[in-house]
Design goal:
The structure holds two protein chains of two kinds. By secondary structure, chain A is mostly helical. Chain A has five helices and two strands, in the order αααββαα. Chain A has a two-stranded antiparallel ribbon. The radius of gyration of chain A is 17 Å and the shape is globular. In chain B, strand 19 (654-658) and strand 20 form a beta hairpin. Classes of the chains: A mainly alpha, B alpha+beta. At the A-B interface, helix 2 and helix 3 of A face helix 2 and helix 3 of B.
Chain lengths: 112, 883
Amino acid sequence: MGHLGELEQLILFAVTALGEEAYGGAIRAHIEERSGRVVSSGAINTTLGRLAERRLVVGRVGTPVSGRAGRPRKYYALTPAGARDLQDSYTTIRAMAGGVLQRLNALAEKKS
Amino acid sequence: MTPRRSRVGRLLAALLIRGAEAPFILRDLEDAFNHDVARGLAPADARRRDLRNILASAGSVWAGSLRPSAWRPSLLDVRLGFRTIVRTPGLSFVAVCALAIGIPVGLAPMHAVDALERSLPGDPGGRIRTLCYWRDSVHEQAAAGDYFLWRTSLRSFGALAAYRPTTVSLDTGGTGRPIPGIETTASTFDILRTPAMLGRVLRADDEKSGAPGVAVIGHDLWRTQFGGDPNIVGRSLLIGGAPFSIVGVMPPAFRFPTSHELWLPLRMSDDGGGPRSGATLVVFGRLSDGATPESAQAELQTLTSSLAAGNPDAFKRLRAAVLPAWHLTFGFPSPGGLRALPEFSLVQVLMLAPLLVACVNVGLLILARTSTRASEFAVRTALGASRARILSQVFAEFMVLALMATGAGLLILGWLPGRVLTAMGITLPYWIDTGLTAATVVRGLVLAAACAVIAGVVPAIRMTGRSIDANIKRVRASRSGQRLGGLSSALIVIDVAVAVVAIGVAGGLWGKVQATKPSASVDGVRAGEILSVTLDVRSAPPQQVARTQAAVFDKLRGEPDVRAVTFATALPRMDHPVRLMEIDQDAAAAAAPAGPFKVRTARIAIDFFDALEQPLVAGRGFDSRDLVEDARTVIVNTTFAQRAFGSNNPIGRRVRQAASDGAPVGPWLDIVGVVGHMGVHALTPSQDDGMYLPLREGGVNPVRLAIWVRGDPRVLASRVHELARAADPDAVVAMPVPLDEMFEGDWYLLEALVLGVALLVGVLLSLAASALYAILSLVVSQRTREIGIRVALGASQWRIARDVAARAVVQIGVGVLIGLPFAGALSYEFLELTGSGRSVPVAVAMALVLGVSVMLLVSFAACTVPTLRALRIAPVDALRTEG
């Protein structure tokens, strides 16, 4: 199992959620909408490149759209290895969080 | 109205975001901007955010391409490299051969300097140093007086030693065998820390006047001359007729200072008479504990400065130097060593030029091949391969090729020089090893990487420098007849220009050798009939030297086979020392050029020209009037007369020695005669300015004798020894060699060098021709569709062929025009060919005509074959097959 960083996890979740429509812009928008986190396009592209190098995602070139200088989008999909790594990461978080959430909430609500 | 992205942002994005992923990233940036606008962000804020996204994306793209992992060639790349070599064996063979020749040539200068500039055996720290003087840029050896003073004054040296080289005649079976040896102080062996293999080394007692004559012999001499006799110590040895007792045999690896086999005690009767006086000696020593070369240099300079204050004339412009020990055997080229010579940089650049030419040519061939791989690169890019990935693969592919060439080149470099030198009978100093060193291997690897970049990666950068769309469009375009573009034209022009320069220089060098090779027809000296010997009268006052010399000359003149005997400090074709001379400007005509001139000088007997049957061109020869103290007369050669005085009469004009800064040194000298070329330099015997001063008997010791013999001069060699010994038991005759054989080694070397250069140029020319053919035929074959259309439209075949050929002729013409001035400049300035007669320009012109003809023929073939093929195809077929 390879270690996944936080942004990598977010991107992999977004790719899974978006299915066939997982391209850079959509992934960024999805992360912003669901997590409220503002992520730059550069960070998204770099992370996607790294994930592709690790063969956790695979890219395919979409059909060029007229009116946008013929530029295509690059769509990403989770590979089985990517799915396993994401599953492992999520399981680890859940295992660690089990039984401590209540206490965590209480601590967070406490005035410092 | 929908807000739009800023122009600046789009321009920045187009400029900064490059590579295979660029289209997707640009699309993402548009999407991100639209998304921001759609969710209600103010247009100004959306544009600001867009700009931040652009910069962040550009940063990530560039950071990604610079990531080492992006460039790291993998094992797969190496495998692909081998596969490419197997798939294109012809191209790979040509490339490996070209680089395997170019790489050792490029490495040779530094390798040679590494081999020469190394410490003596047993002195890994370089603690053994030599002490000498420099006057301006000319080395001056120490004198006996300097040695005695330094030995007692300098604290930086634990021990000092002095020696002078000598070639003695070893009497064996009635014949004299010349043996290189040195007369040296006993401290030499302490400093070198080398004990004798048998017996003992020299001792301080042996140096005393009146002590029995002793000798230490080398291992080779012991083995060859005495059959390796284990009881050699105590046996007697006849040197020049005098008995010497052998006291020791040195180990096989010891031949100090270079390739010497005999060590005799150096006997000096007094302390040399103070600094800068006494016999000329080579002085060296071992630094004492705690001393550094810098501290020793400072101490010596302080001593020299204090001496100069007391005797400013003797020490004028004189600088003392403490230098590495290898200077002992290489004629002290410059205080900084060989690397510091400007000539070395020039040689290094010239020796790297063939490799650059090879790289450019291999690059051209690769470009031709790479252009056929453009579709492969485009597809791989479309499938997601980054530009860095493709470039690293090409680099790895070519690195395999370059490493094969480097391996072959290093093997050549490690093996060949030693064999060539052995075959030529040249013995290197005993401590030199021409084998490969780690530094040379590392330099070889660096050159291999540079070759891989120049010849492999640069063409690939050109082929992968666009986006996927552009690459695919380009592939389509190239199929439909587009040309390779300006890069190929530029490379062809450079290629031809460099080939022209190389051919010109090779032609010039060949012409120079032919024009200046010493022969009786060139300088009038019948060197094959003249025996050259050195007569050394040891440990004798000047009057005794003069008497002995006169007696030896008389005895020689009485020999039936001797036609003439004369003497000088240097004989024709030997290297005469250079002096800077200025001419008397006041008396000079307005047309006379300003000095100072570099003039090679020798002191000669007054009958020198008569004895060698060299008639004076103008004025008179020397006679007894010129030997009086204040005579101050000189004879110049025709080259100097022509250069300094033009068409004016030089007789009666005056010359004076000058320092490099133009300051006069010494008195004015009257020119009384002009003589033809007799050779004042070993390699350019008939070209240099020459000047002769009169020399009386006993004027110098040792002195060079020229003995003109009827028949074979070698036969007289042993007789000369006998006559000299009969005249004076202290007289030693050394180096008896026919004059024409003295320089055979030099000429053999020079001719081998010319042959090597010719071979190299031949290989480069072949390579340039094949690269030219590959590129031109590719360019023409890519125009098949165009030719088909023009034929269909009714263009004449002649006109089409002319158009195709015109482009090649223009490229070659531009290359020739660029190369010619450089070829001319190098031939005439660097090689100093001016004044060598018509043969050199003719040789240069012939070589250039030959080279350019080859280029034109190759271009003609490269254009003709694909053009004819294109013309033979029916226009419709051409359109169908290439469209």
